């Protein structure tokens, strides 16, 4: 007997009689690729379905649970139907012992897991791949898509392993990614509200890691909201790591991107973690290393059409392109673009960034690349550590570049600029640059005017070592008692409550660097 049908009948009778409706009881469905049969009910382990096609043919209801037998391989596309809601999510998970259920798309469809015009889903503990016989643009492991839908809420991806997706390496051709959220359509504006990507792994995916796409133009501003990307590992991905687009208030934290292979053609640009066309993005406690994109290639980026991006408490190291890019395409005008205003970069560590020695742009890799007419960028209480460098490497610490305009009102304060070689500064036609209370150690050419500069060894607690992974490596940048950086900082320009190590900021005047204790 199908319990749901009994309750649905009860609901109909109650409605006809004017009585309070009785809620339907959710079902749990089981799928086993070895012992299941599609002629079964699917409502018990003994009556499990067998194929993805059977799952795709069913429309699930709020509260339903879909369970794939662990230790099994399922080939094809998983395209579930139906929607839940915040109080009754539809969930996909595993059951039984063994490795996570492996869903192999084999490149047949653009995405192995495809959720279209649906909401109220929590999907966890799956292993997903989509490797085809040939590279193909727009290929993804997971695609969550809205088309003329409206607002889709409560979509959560947790502990999913996405790997071996051979999409295109060329962005303009359509690229490819491990996980993509995308909204569009021509008639009904669509957006996501309350989505989470947490504790997932993205490995060997081309071109990119995690993308959240949206309404980027300010003429059609309808931003995704309550977007959280947390605790993910991105490894062996040559392109962009995490890129939220068309979002307001996105939170990107505790993610790791590493071991990025040099696969992109010389015409391509990419970076680690960066918002585009976002307001109030918060990027914190992330580690990005080994990015080898032929252009850009920074660990972090505050891109154009963004307001009030905050990049804080991050660790960037051994990236070919440098630590951070702040940019605005000056040719993109209002009303489509709002420019780039109010970026804050604070309490981060950059270690041995700017290593590019090959390709078309060899030798260009400033630690800070600030280009285009960005306005009111505030960079304070960071540590930049440059070991001795190959003569082929860029020694520029800050370069203000031209992208149809130059930066205006950029503020550097309380940073430690530490080099064992030579550091240089290029300001070009940028204007209203302010350097205050920074510590400069080593040989600094064309150093900007800084009346309160400190030029002594900051006396880090331990000698920093290149190539060290993990946030624990940042313990080396704490200050010893008697450090000349203690109490020599300028008053903080923004409300900041703690340092890189979580210590409340109570000192007046503050310290220079990332240690506020």
Please outline the helices and strands.
Layout: H1 3-17, E1 28-31, H2 52-56, E2 59-60, E3 65-69, E4 73-75, E5 81-82, E6 90-95, E7 102-104, E8 111-116, E9 121-124, E10 127-130, E11 139-147, E12 151-158, E13 161-166, E14 176-184, E15 191-198, E16 201-206, E17 208-212, E18 224-230, E19 233-235, E20 242-244, E21 247-248, E22 251-253, E23 256-258, E24 269-270, E25 282-284, E26 287-289, E27 295-296, E28 300-302, E29 306-307, E30 310-312, E31 315-317, E32 324-327, E33 340-341, E34 344-346, E35 349-351, E36 368-371, E37 375-380, E38 383-386, E39 396-401, E40 408-413, E41 416-426, E42 431-436, E43 439-445
Parallel strand pairs: 1-3, 2-5, 3-6, 4-7, 6-9, 7-10, 8-11, 9-12, 10-13, 11-14, 12-15, 13-16, 14-17, 15-18, 16-19, 17-20, 18-21, 18-22, 19-23, 22-25, 23-26, 24-27, 25-30, 26-31, 28-32, 29-33, 30-34, 31-35, 32-36, 34-37, 35-38, 36-39, 37-40, 38-41, 39-41, 40-42, 41-43
Short description:
This protein is mainly β. It has two helices and 43 strands. The longest helix has 15 residues, at 3-17.
